[in-house]
Amino acid sequence: MKEIKAFIRPNKIKEVISSLRREGHCCLTVFEGEGTGDYTDPGEDWPSLKLPFLHSKIYKLEIVCEDSKVAAICDIVRQNGKTGKSGDGLIYVSDVQDIFKIKNTKNDNVK
């Protein structure tokens, strides 16, 4: 199993999620946040009242999937999340060792 984390511009989030769902990738989590870095777009970024330095508004998608689905999911995110400008985002892929359901009383992992 893999975990995919994708950082996406706010104006592209609906397009990315719609495309993922259309291709059968329905289960994901979305977080709204702010980030800083070398890849911000000065024409699109603005300072925050909470964090008064240059930053970018971002959404973070988290998806846990089978190894065989990673390439397809990453392709969908890239194709639908890009604007061609600096600061379009990043995708990280990590190994998932175990998954446990919180409701279970035993430590049986989910497979």
CATH class: Alpha Beta
Estimate what percentage of residues fall within beta strands.
Answer: 25-35%
CATH fold type? Alpha-Beta Plaits
Number of strands: 4
Measured between the Cα atoms of the first and last residue, the distance is 9 Å
Subunit organisation of the chains: single chain
* Share in helix: 10-25%
Strand order of the largest sheet: 2-3-1-4
Number of helices: 2
Radius of gyration over alpha carbons? 16 Å
Shape: globular
CATH architecture: 2-Layer Sandwich
| Biggest beta sheet summary | 4 strands, antiparallel
Describe this structure in words.
- Helix content is 20%, strand content 28%.
- The chain has 111 residues and is of the alpha+beta class.
- The chain has one domain (2-95): Alpha-Beta Plaits (2-Layer Sandwich).
Give the SSE map:
Elements: E1 2-8, H1 13-22, E2 29-35, E3 56-65, H2 70-81, E4 89-95
Antiparallel strand pairs: 1-3, 1-4, 2-3
Helix pairs in contact: 1-2
Task: Characterize this entry briefly.
One of its GO terms (molecular function) is enzyme regulator activity. The protein is α+β, with helices and mostly antiparallel strands.
List keywords for this structure.
N-reg_PII, four-stranded antiparallel β-sheet, ATP binding, globular, N-reg_PII-like_a/b, 111 residues, 2 helices
